[in-house]
Every structure is written in C-alpha cells, then in structure tokens.
Amino acid sequence: MQIASDAPATFRSSADRPGAMALLVTAVREALSRQRLIRYLVRAEIKKKGTDTVLGNVWWVLDPLVSLSVYVFVFGTVFARNQQDFAVFLIAAMIPFKWFTGTLSDAVSSVTANGSLIKQIQFPKIVLPLVVNGSGLMNLLVGFGVLLGFVIVLYPAHLSTMLLLFPVIAIIQGVMMLGFSFFLAAATVFYRDVGIVIGHLLRLLFYVAPILWSFEAAGGRGSLIRNAVGDEFFTILRYNPVAVLLETFRTITYGVPLPDGGWRHATLADLEWVGLGAVLLMSIAILVLGTIFFKRLEPQFAKVL
Amino acid sequence: MSQGITDAPSAPLVDPDTDQSITDVEPVAIARPIDETAPPALAVRELGVQYNLRFGKNTRMRTSFRNALRREQSDRTFWALRNATFTVHRGESVGVIGPNGAGKSTLLLVLAGIITPSEGVVEVNGHISTLLSLQAGFDQDLSGLDNIALAGALMGIPHDTMQRITPDVIEFADLGKFIDAPLKTYSSGMRARLGFSIATAVDPDILLLDEVLQTGDEVFREKSRQRIISVLQAAKAVVLVTHDMTWVTEFCTRALLIEDGRVALDGAPEEVVRVHREHSQARRAARREAIDRMRRGEIAIDAADLRRLEEPKGRGSRRSAE
To answer: What backbone phi and psi angles, to 5 degrees, belong to B244?
Structure first.
C-alpha cells in the first residue's frame, strides 16, 4: 500500500543552479501543490493565537477594536483634530496600514522562526511567507468587519457603494506585501539586521503616510507638511505607493476630505486610477523579483539557520 | 514479545568512540528481498557539501563585511562531505557510522533533500520519511495531535489518510493524555517516541533515521526494533545514523564508515564496525599519548593544539569554532 502525497515521489538534487524563469515556475508549482499545507499552517497560527489567553478567539475582534479606540482617542481627542468624523477618517486608513505592518513584520521572521522545522524536513520554504500573508489576510477580514460594523452603527452617512472596491484595492496591496515578504524573509536569514531596520521603517511610514493626515485636506495639514519637508520630499511622499493605496482606501470608506474639515461622498472620478495602475504594475514586479530572490537563496537556508 | 529477534540482548552496544563496554550479539536474519535491477532508492554520485563559515546563525552586517574584506578563503569554507558515491537499493538498510563530526548527519540532511549538494548529484526514487532531530519537535505550542497533523501536512499526505493512520501513531507513541498537551510540556523521550511513531507510520519508501534509537525506554526500543524490521521486510530502504553498533550489526545489510567527510569504507556491517573500532581505538590511543606527553612536559602546546586535541563535537560546534 502506498500513501499518496503532495510531495514529489522522486527528486534529484545537485549543485546546478536553475535560471530565474525556472525558479519562478517552481515557486508557482510549489505554492499551488502545497495549498493544503498552507491552509493547515494558517489554521495552526490562528489556533495558537487563541491558546494561553482567557478570552481566546475573542481577541481577534477585540484587538483591532481596542487599538483603534486608542488611536481615535489619542489623535482625535487629545490632539483635537477638527476633521469631521475623525474616527472614520482614521480607521479607514489605519486598518489597511495595520494589515501592511503586521504582515511585513511577521514575514521578516517567517523563515528564521522555523529554523528547526527547516532542518528536520524537506518542504518548499516558499510556503512560510505565504502562511504569514494568509493569516494576515484573516486579520484584514476581521478588521474590515470591524470597520464595516463601526461605520454602519455609528456613521451610516459615510456608507457608499464605493466600499465595494475594497477587495480590489486590497488585492493590489496584497500582491505588493507578498513580494516584500519574500524579499524580507529570505534576506533576514543572512542578515538579522533586516528585522530591526524594517521595524524602524514601518514606524516612520506611519507618520509619513497619510494616516493621521491627508494630502488634500484636514485644515491644511497636508500643506503644513509640505512646508516642513519641502516640495521635493513632499512629492516623494505623494508618490509613495503605500500612500496611494491608503488614500484610496480612505476615499472609498470615508469619502473625500475637504479643506474646511468636512467631507463629501466620493465618486469613481475621485480615485487616482493612473496611480493605482502604476502601483499594481510595481507590485507585480516586486512579487516576481521577490519570488526569484527567495528561491535563489532557499537552498542555503538549512545550512545557515 | 518474547520470541525470535526480541531475544537479542537489549543492552546497547555503544560507540567505541564514546564508551568501552561492547559485547557481541548474534545478527538476526531478516528476509531482505533486494532487487538490484530496479532503479536504486538512493543514488549518490561524487557528492560534496560545503559550508560557508561566513554566514552563521547570527550574522550581522559588520562581521559579514569584515569577512568579505579578508582574503584567506580557505578559512571560511569547509567541506563537511566530499566525493561520496554509493547507492542504496530497496530492501537494503544501511548503517552510517563514524566519529563525531565526520559528516554523518550532513549526509542524511542531503539525502533528505534538506540541504542541496555543493557538488555532485543525489537521486531519490520514492517517498522519503525523515524526522531527523526528533528532540526538536515541530511546533512547541501545538498539541501532540496537532503536531501529527502538521507532520502529515508537511509531508504532503492527504487529510483522510492522516486521519486513518493517526490512531496508530498515537497508540504506538503511547503518550496517554499528553497527546492533547502542547509539545513544550513533553519529555525528550516522549518527543522521540512521537517522532519515530510518525516517521514510520506514514509508510515511506525510504526511511532516514538519525540517532533516534538511543532515546526512549527499553519497552519503546523494543517496539521500534519491531517497527524497523517490518519496514525492512516490506522491502523499503532504510538509512540510519547511529552510535549504537548493535543496530548496525543486527539490522543493517550494509554499513558506511564516514571519516573526515569521506566514505572511508562501504561494506558488510561486521567488517565496517570492526574497522571503525580499530580506528577509534587508534585515535583514542593517540590522544592519550599526546596528553601524557603534554603532562610530562615533553611537548609544548598552545591553544591551537589544545583545540585540535579536543574531540570535535559535531558540525555545530565546529562551525562556531571559527
């Protein structure tokens, strides 16, 4: 009796180095053939989060709620913002941003944290960053649920059909995050510094990306920043791909913030289609290069860890 | 279980490198249908594995740059294994023996596909089951039951198959109520039992085992003996790294002696074990002699000599000794 398996029954390993295209094809094939493993690991990840806590899986909903409340209190009340419905303004960008930072900081250690696994059994290491992105996606779904409930219950005026675009924008961001994840996960194996640097970069991003402020509105905060950093640097901030995504998320959730602190419902014409298209192309490029980078370094993982 | 093979003395024979008490046992005859015409389960040709000492577990930018600036290349790479050529057919069980740090574990890692060769080729025909360092376990926070499922998922075994064999695994591992407790609460013996149980339950074509048979109590050792025999009788290939010479002479059809990253000898288990013992005794004598001369002050030693005299304790310590 032979037990069937997703893993290949025969393999040949040699010192030959496959080309970029071959690496890409292998990566896609591995990811597709090991979907069960990925699903299993994502479930295990979720299960672990619930253990050793009194409230268990309630934390999935409570966690984003509490952290959003803190941000709304600190930046909406303590630093008194005159933006109307600031809570919606903030969490519309905050939820996708949390998704971005949470997933990337987990992705950094996705390979190194599984060193003992990698040294015990042969499996496609590409599943590790994929798992992190998978459970990150679960976090986003919960976050989106919280966002939706929040808007429906407290700020129903902001609801619009534009919110249907949420998955589309999320896919673009997801592709970008996956690409970054491959780069970071593989690089950290060789240089542990990557994790430290990324931690600081993500914190910096929180302030230079339009989360607490927006480019166009909020009582001229955008122009305050422009004056502070200068026109050239402001342009860089403006074309930061994460900024483009976060602004879009805000536009479809909150609406368009107006300079006087008010807001209006957005239309399709308010979206930066060219910017989004460019970000999508860039994200695909990052994903392709990240995959090749990861696969190129993968044979060294077991030796270095 | 009092008949036949189980009558073999259970007192383990120990590696001559590490201990002295050695007794001989009657080898047990096992039906081993070896098919020499079929493609071999494992074919290894001119295999070499090179470690680069530049990158260690905690490589930082600074050390890496510093090393990049240095020229002496030879200091920073070493061959854990070189020019290894051999084949393993179905029905064969090959014992891999040799002194600590000779490259035995590295060999198993390459056969398992966990590390890729730096030169040469490894061809594997058939599903491999490898739970190499069982002490580590898979996921410390998950229960034993979840770890069984995780192992199945990692090996790519379908869910329903895993569900079918899980009761067997649990029964064989004999963990009682611990099966639902997180792995971090397990004793090392329990981990070893669970690991061995999983590795053999999945019905692999090729079973790779590293030092697993030393752990566990007498009862479990006996059970694992039975398991391995049934694996062998099912005409599967087994490669096992061990310091327990009983296993080699009792259950192996062949043995490889690995010394200094090379296959020093490939042949009948009794012969290979004999040569290994001779070499070990010679090494020990040389070491004792050197230490005695040092004590008498006949030779001056420096730190480097001392390091050389100390027995290498496996790849890990050698790498960090840089």
So the answer is: -95, 100
